[in-house]
UniProtKB/TrEMBL annotation:
UniProt-recorded name of the protein: Sulfite exporter TauE/SafE family protein
InterPro entries for the chain: Cupredoxin, EfeO_Cupredoxin, UreH-like_TM_dom
Annotated transmembrane regions: 6-32, 44-65, 77-97, 153-175, 181-200, 212-229
Species annotation: Actinomadura keratinilytica
UniProt entry tagged with the keyword Transcription regulation: no
Domain EfeO-type cupredoxin-like: 249-343
Keyword list, A-Z: Membrane, Transmembrane, Transmembrane helix
Pfam family membership, one: Cupredoxin_1
Keyword Nucleus: no
Organism classification: Bacteria, Bacillati, Actinomycetota, Actinomycetes, Streptosporangiales
Urease accessory protein UreH-like transmembrane domain ranges (all copies): 147-217
Protein backbone atom coordinates (compact mmCIF):
# COMPACT_ATOMS: atom_id res chain seq x y z
CA UNK A 1 0.00 0.00 0.00
CA UNK A 2 1.23 3.51 -0.75
CA UNK A 3 1.21 6.37 1.77
CA UNK A 4 -2.25 7.81 0.85
CA UNK A 5 -3.85 4.38 1.16
CA UNK A 6 -2.10 3.79 4.47
CA UNK A 7 -3.26 7.20 5.71
CA UNK A 8 -6.86 6.36 4.76
CA UNK A 9 -6.65 2.98 6.50
CA UNK A 10 -5.27 4.64 9.62
CA UNK A 11 -7.98 7.32 9.54
CA UNK A 12 -10.74 4.71 9.37
CA UNK A 13 -9.23 2.91 12.37
CA UNK A 14 -8.84 6.20 14.28
CA UNK A 15 -12.46 7.19 13.66
CA UNK A 16 -13.66 3.82 14.96
CA UNK A 17 -11.39 4.19 18.00
CA UNK A 18 -12.77 7.66 18.72
CA UNK A 19 -16.34 6.37 18.64
CA UNK A 20 -15.71 3.47 21.04
CA UNK A 21 -14.39 2.96 24.55
CA UNK A 22 -10.94 2.98 22.96
CA UNK A 23 -10.89 6.76 23.43
CA UNK A 24 -11.93 6.59 27.09
CA UNK A 25 -8.40 5.86 28.31
CA UNK A 26 -7.18 9.13 26.74
CA UNK A 27 -10.07 11.47 27.51
CA UNK A 28 -8.80 11.95 31.07
CA UNK A 29 -5.62 13.44 29.63
CA UNK A 30 -7.69 15.71 27.39
CA UNK A 31 -9.71 16.87 30.39
CA UNK A 32 -6.49 17.76 32.16
CA UNK A 33 -5.23 19.65 29.11
CA UNK A 34 -8.22 22.01 28.95
CA UNK A 35 -8.84 22.26 32.69
CA UNK A 36 -9.39 25.85 33.84
CA UNK A 37 -9.03 27.27 30.33
CA UNK A 38 -11.49 30.07 29.70
CA UNK A 39 -11.51 29.23 26.00
CA UNK A 40 -10.68 25.57 25.30
CA UNK A 41 -9.83 26.06 21.61
CA UNK A 42 -6.14 26.85 22.16
CA UNK A 43 -5.34 23.99 24.59
CA UNK A 44 -7.36 21.52 22.49
CA UNK A 45 -5.41 22.55 19.39
CA UNK A 46 -2.12 22.17 21.28
CA UNK A 47 -3.20 18.77 22.65
CA UNK A 48 -4.17 17.44 19.20
CA UNK A 49 -1.03 18.83 17.56
CA UNK A 50 1.18 17.13 20.15
CA UNK A 51 -0.83 13.91 19.81
CA UNK A 52 -0.35 14.02 16.05
CA UNK A 53 3.40 14.65 16.35
CA UNK A 54 3.93 11.85 18.89
CA UNK A 55 1.95 9.24 16.94
CA UNK A 56 3.47 10.22 13.61
CA UNK A 57 6.95 9.93 15.09
CA UNK A 58 6.12 6.54 16.58
CA UNK A 59 4.76 5.38 13.22
CA UNK A 60 7.99 6.34 11.49
CA UNK A 61 10.00 4.42 14.10
CA UNK A 62 7.75 1.36 13.81
CA UNK A 63 8.10 1.44 10.05
CA UNK A 64 11.89 1.23 10.42
CA UNK A 65 12.49 -1.12 13.32
CA UNK A 66 9.31 -3.19 13.24
CA UNK A 67 7.81 -4.42 16.49
CA UNK A 68 10.96 -4.05 18.58
CA UNK A 69 9.52 -1.05 20.42
CA UNK A 70 6.00 -2.45 20.70
CA UNK A 71 5.07 -2.71 24.41
CA UNK A 72 3.95 -6.16 25.51
CA UNK A 73 0.66 -7.04 27.24
CA UNK A 74 1.97 -6.48 30.77
CA UNK A 75 3.37 -3.04 29.94
CA UNK A 76 0.10 -2.03 28.27
CA UNK A 77 -1.81 -3.37 31.28
CA UNK A 78 0.27 -1.21 33.62
CA UNK A 79 -0.33 1.85 31.42
CA UNK A 80 -4.09 1.22 31.47
CA UNK A 81 -3.98 0.96 35.27
CA UNK A 82 -2.18 4.32 35.44
CA UNK A 83 -4.77 5.79 33.08
CA UNK A 84 -7.52 4.59 35.44
CA UNK A 85 -5.84 6.38 38.35
CA UNK A 86 -5.61 9.57 36.26
CA UNK A 87 -9.32 9.40 35.39
CA UNK A 88 -10.24 8.95 39.05
CA UNK A 89 -8.12 11.94 40.04
CA UNK A 90 -9.82 14.13 37.46
CA UNK A 91 -13.22 12.99 38.78
CA UNK A 92 -12.21 13.99 42.32
CA UNK A 93 -10.94 17.30 40.96
CA UNK A 94 -14.33 18.03 39.36
CA UNK A 95 -15.96 17.05 42.65
CA UNK A 96 -13.90 19.71 44.42
CA UNK A 97 -11.77 17.48 46.67
CA UNK A 98 -9.18 20.00 47.87
CA UNK A 99 -6.09 17.77 48.27
CA UNK A 100 -6.57 16.40 44.76
CA UNK A 101 -7.27 19.86 43.34
CA UNK A 102 -4.10 21.25 44.89
CA UNK A 103 -2.12 18.28 43.53
CA UNK A 104 -3.41 18.62 39.97
CA UNK A 105 -3.20 22.40 39.85
CA UNK A 106 0.24 22.77 41.37
CA UNK A 107 2.35 25.09 39.28
CA UNK A 108 -0.50 26.64 37.28
CA UNK A 109 -1.99 30.07 37.75
CA UNK A 110 -4.57 30.36 35.02
CA UNK A 111 -7.48 29.30 37.28
CA UNK A 112 -10.07 31.84 38.41
CA UNK A 113 -9.90 33.07 42.00
CA UNK A 114 -11.55 30.70 44.52
CA UNK A 115 -15.17 31.35 45.33
CA UNK A 116 -14.76 30.55 49.03
CA UNK A 117 -12.87 32.75 51.42
CA UNK A 118 -9.75 31.13 52.78
CA UNK A 119 -9.32 28.71 49.86
CA UNK A 120 -5.75 28.87 48.58
CA UNK A 121 -5.30 30.68 45.30
CA UNK A 122 -2.32 30.67 43.01
CA UNK A 123 -3.20 34.24 42.04
CA UNK A 124 -1.58 35.34 45.24
CA UNK A 125 1.71 34.09 43.85
CA UNK A 126 1.73 36.96 41.38
CA UNK A 127 2.51 39.39 44.15
CA UNK A 128 6.18 40.14 44.71
CA UNK A 129 5.53 40.01 48.46
CA UNK A 130 4.26 36.42 48.51
CA UNK A 131 6.46 34.54 46.07
CA UNK A 132 10.01 35.50 45.21
CA UNK A 133 12.88 33.92 43.39
CA UNK A 134 16.17 33.25 45.18
CA UNK A 135 17.53 36.57 43.89
CA UNK A 136 14.64 38.40 45.54
CA UNK A 137 12.80 39.32 42.34
CA UNK A 138 9.16 38.34 41.82
CA UNK A 139 8.39 35.89 39.01
CA UNK A 140 6.53 37.32 36.06
CA UNK A 141 2.98 36.28 35.18
CA UNK A 142 4.39 34.87 31.95
CA UNK A 143 6.62 32.43 33.86
CA UNK A 144 3.75 31.41 36.14
CA UNK A 145 1.53 30.65 33.18
CA UNK A 146 4.27 28.74 31.36
CA UNK A 147 3.40 25.43 33.01
CA UNK A 148 -0.25 25.79 32.02
CA UNK A 149 0.71 26.46 28.40
CA UNK A 150 2.99 23.42 28.31
CA UNK A 151 0.46 21.10 29.93
CA UNK A 152 -1.69 20.41 26.80
CA UNK A 153 1.46 19.65 24.79
CA UNK A 154 2.82 17.23 27.39
CA UNK A 155 -0.53 15.47 27.87
CA UNK A 156 -1.18 15.27 24.13
CA UNK A 157 2.18 13.62 23.56
CA UNK A 158 1.52 11.26 26.51
CA UNK A 159 -1.46 9.70 24.72
CA UNK A 160 1.02 7.61 22.74
CA UNK A 161 1.70 5.71 25.99
CA UNK A 162 -1.96 4.62 26.36
CA UNK A 163 -2.65 2.22 23.49
CA UNK A 164 -5.88 0.25 23.04
CA UNK A 165 -6.76 -2.63 20.75
CA UNK A 166 -7.42 -0.45 17.73
CA UNK A 167 -4.24 1.55 18.35
CA UNK A 168 -2.39 -1.76 18.28
CA UNK A 169 -3.98 -2.55 14.93
CA UNK A 170 -2.78 0.78 13.52
CA UNK A 171 0.71 0.24 14.95
CA UNK A 172 0.94 -3.18 13.35
CA UNK A 173 -0.08 -1.68 10.01
CA UNK A 174 2.80 0.75 10.52
CA UNK A 175 5.14 -2.17 11.19
CA UNK A 176 3.90 -4.00 8.09
CA UNK A 177 4.57 -0.93 5.92
CA UNK A 178 8.33 -1.43 6.49
CA UNK A 179 9.06 2.21 5.74
CA UNK A 180 9.18 5.39 7.86
CA UNK A 181 6.91 7.22 5.41
CA UNK A 182 4.29 4.47 5.39
CA UNK A 183 4.41 4.04 9.16
CA UNK A 184 4.09 7.78 9.72
CA UNK A 185 1.16 7.93 7.28
CA UNK A 186 -0.74 5.20 9.14
CA UNK A 187 -0.36 6.81 12.56
CA UNK A 188 -1.02 10.34 11.27
CA UNK A 189 -4.23 9.05 9.71
CA UNK A 190 -5.14 7.33 12.97
CA UNK A 191 -4.91 10.63 14.88
CA UNK A 192 -6.70 12.57 12.13
CA UNK A 193 -9.58 10.06 12.15
CA UNK A 194 -10.15 10.51 15.90
CA UNK A 195 -9.56 14.29 15.93
CA UNK A 196 -13.25 15.31 15.47
CA UNK A 197 -14.31 13.32 18.54
CA UNK A 198 -11.46 14.67 20.67
CA UNK A 199 -12.17 18.21 19.47
CA UNK A 200 -15.85 18.00 20.38
CA UNK A 201 -15.10 16.52 23.80
CA UNK A 202 -12.49 19.21 24.47
CA UNK A 203 -14.86 21.99 23.47
CA UNK A 204 -17.49 20.62 25.86
CA UNK A 205 -15.23 20.82 28.90
CA UNK A 206 -16.57 24.24 29.94
CA UNK A 207 -20.02 22.68 30.18
CA UNK A 208 -18.64 19.91 32.36
CA UNK A 209 -17.72 22.47 34.96
CA UNK A 210 -21.34 23.59 35.07
CA UNK A 211 -24.51 21.67 34.43
CA UNK A 212 -22.74 18.47 33.30
CA UNK A 213 -20.36 18.23 36.24
CA UNK A 214 -22.54 15.69 38.15
CA UNK A 215 -22.64 13.49 35.05
CA UNK A 216 -18.86 13.68 34.67
CA UNK A 217 -18.35 12.88 38.36
CA UNK A 218 -20.37 9.68 37.91
CA UNK A 219 -19.05 8.73 34.47
CA UNK A 220 -15.33 9.21 35.07
CA UNK A 221 -15.07 6.79 38.05
CA UNK A 222 -17.11 4.23 36.11
CA UNK A 223 -14.76 4.51 33.14
CA UNK A 224 -11.78 4.43 35.53
CA UNK A 225 -13.03 1.17 37.08
CA UNK A 226 -13.60 -0.40 33.68
CA UNK A 227 -10.17 0.77 32.49
CA UNK A 228 -8.48 -0.60 35.62
CA UNK A 229 -10.17 -3.99 35.21
CA UNK A 230 -9.13 -4.07 31.55
CA UNK A 231 -5.54 -3.28 32.50
CA UNK A 232 -5.46 -6.00 35.16
CA UNK A 233 -6.86 -8.53 32.70
CA UNK A 234 -4.39 -7.49 30.02
CA UNK A 235 -1.47 -7.81 32.40
CA UNK A 236 -2.66 -11.24 33.55
CA UNK A 237 -2.96 -10.06 37.16
CA UNK A 238 -6.60 -11.13 37.60
CA UNK A 239 -8.40 -14.13 36.08
CA UNK A 240 -9.76 -13.06 32.72
CA UNK A 241 -12.85 -15.22 33.15
CA UNK A 242 -15.08 -15.06 30.12
CA UNK A 243 -18.57 -14.55 28.88
CA UNK A 244 -19.38 -18.23 28.90
CA UNK A 245 -21.52 -19.58 26.11
CA UNK A 246 -23.62 -22.61 25.39
CA UNK A 247 -22.17 -25.87 26.71
CA UNK A 248 -22.72 -27.52 23.35
CA UNK A 249 -20.74 -24.78 21.58
CA UNK A 250 -17.89 -25.11 24.08
CA UNK A 251 -17.80 -28.88 23.70
CA UNK A 252 -17.84 -28.74 19.90
CA UNK A 253 -14.87 -26.34 19.97
CA UNK A 254 -12.49 -29.15 21.02
CA UNK A 255 -11.51 -31.94 18.63
CA UNK A 256 -8.86 -34.69 18.91
CA UNK A 257 -7.70 -36.34 15.68
CA UNK A 258 -6.45 -39.90 15.17
CA UNK A 259 -2.86 -38.89 15.89
CA UNK A 260 -3.85 -37.54 19.31
CA UNK A 261 -3.41 -33.86 18.39
CA UNK A 262 -6.02 -31.62 20.02
CA UNK A 263 -7.57 -28.65 18.22
CA UNK A 264 -9.39 -25.86 20.07
CA UNK A 265 -11.39 -23.58 17.78
CA UNK A 266 -12.51 -20.14 18.93
CA UNK A 267 -14.35 -17.51 16.87
CA UNK A 268 -13.40 -13.85 17.31
CA UNK A 269 -16.57 -11.79 16.93
CA UNK A 270 -16.91 -8.02 17.09
CA UNK A 271 -18.25 -8.18 20.66
CA UNK A 272 -16.33 -11.08 22.16
CA UNK A 273 -15.15 -14.64 21.65
CA UNK A 274 -17.27 -17.74 21.04
CA UNK A 275 -16.97 -19.83 23.03
CA UNK A 276 -15.29 -17.70 25.67
CA UNK A 277 -14.87 -20.55 28.16
CA UNK A 278 -13.51 -23.90 26.96
CA UNK A 279 -12.38 -27.08 28.70
CA UNK A 280 -9.73 -29.20 27.00
CA UNK A 281 -7.41 -32.13 27.76
CA UNK A 282 -4.10 -31.42 29.46
CA UNK A 283 -0.79 -32.97 28.45
CA UNK A 284 -1.53 -33.48 24.74
CA UNK A 285 -0.27 -31.50 21.72
CA UNK A 286 -2.72 -28.66 21.23
CA UNK A 287 -3.34 -26.16 18.42
CA UNK A 288 -5.50 -23.09 18.98
CA UNK A 289 -7.45 -22.13 15.86
CA UNK A 290 -8.74 -18.55 15.78
CA UNK A 291 -11.38 -17.79 13.17
CA UNK A 292 -12.83 -14.50 11.97
CA UNK A 293 -15.53 -13.60 9.48
CA UNK A 294 -15.91 -9.88 8.79
CA UNK A 295 -14.58 -9.08 12.27
CA UNK A 296 -13.40 -5.48 12.74
CA UNK A 297 -13.56 -4.95 16.50
CA UNK A 298 -11.03 -5.11 19.35
CA UNK A 299 -11.14 -8.90 19.32
CA UNK A 300 -8.94 -9.02 16.22
CA UNK A 301 -6.03 -8.10 18.51
CA UNK A 302 -5.79 -11.36 20.48
CA UNK A 303 -3.56 -11.54 23.57
CA UNK A 304 -2.36 -14.39 25.80
CA UNK A 305 -0.93 -12.46 28.81
CA UNK A 306 0.87 -15.37 30.47
CA UNK A 307 2.82 -16.05 27.27
CA UNK A 308 3.33 -12.37 26.37
CA UNK A 309 1.77 -13.10 22.98
CA UNK A 310 -0.06 -10.60 20.74
CA UNK A 311 -1.70 -11.77 17.52
CA UNK A 312 -3.55 -9.56 15.06
CA UNK A 313 -6.16 -11.62 13.24
CA UNK A 314 -7.30 -10.97 9.67
CA UNK A 315 -10.75 -9.52 9.09
CA UNK A 316 -11.77 -12.91 7.69
CA UNK A 317 -9.72 -16.06 7.88
CA UNK A 318 -8.07 -18.58 10.15
CA UNK A 319 -4.99 -18.26 12.36
CA UNK A 320 -3.34 -21.27 14.01
CA UNK A 321 -1.34 -21.00 17.26
CA UNK A 322 0.72 -23.94 18.52
CA UNK A 323 0.23 -24.18 22.29
CA UNK A 324 2.55 -27.15 22.76
CA UNK A 325 1.34 -29.68 25.35
CA UNK A 326 -0.17 -27.54 28.14
CA UNK A 327 -0.23 -28.90 31.66
CA UNK A 328 -3.27 -28.83 33.91
CA UNK A 329 -4.40 -25.29 34.59
CA UNK A 330 -6.08 -22.32 33.04
CA UNK A 331 -4.89 -20.33 30.04
CA UNK A 332 -6.50 -16.88 29.99
CA UNK A 333 -6.84 -14.82 26.85
CA UNK A 334 -8.24 -11.37 26.19
CA UNK A 335 -8.48 -8.82 23.43
CA UNK A 336 -5.54 -6.38 23.34
CA UNK A 337 -7.63 -3.63 24.94
CA UNK A 338 -8.55 -5.87 27.90
CA UNK A 339 -12.28 -5.61 27.27
CA UNK A 340 -13.29 -9.09 26.07
CA UNK A 341 -11.84 -11.98 28.13
CA UNK A 342 -11.93 -15.73 27.84
CA UNK A 343 -10.13 -18.85 29.04
CA UNK A 344 -9.19 -22.44 28.23
CA UNK A 345 -9.06 -24.81 31.20
CA UNK A 346 -6.86 -27.84 30.67
CA UNK A 347 -7.69 -30.92 32.76
Amino acid sequence: MDAPALFAAGAATGLLAGLTTCAAVQLGLLAGAVRDAGRPSAPVAAFLTARLAAHTGLGAVLGVVGGAVQPGPRMRGALLALAAVALLLFALDLLGVRPVRRLLRRGTCDAPPPAKAGEPSCHAARSPDTTARPDGRAPSARRLRGGARRRPVVLGAATVLLPCGLTLSAELMAVASRSPVGGAAVMAGFVAGGAPVFGLVGAAQRGLRGRLTPLAVVALPAVAGWTLLSGLRLGGWVPAGGGGGAAAAAASAVRVDASGRQTVTIWALDRGYRPAVVTARAGVPTVLVLRTSGTRGHTRAFTIPSRDVDIVLPVSGETRVDLGSPGAGRLDFVCASGHFPGSITFR
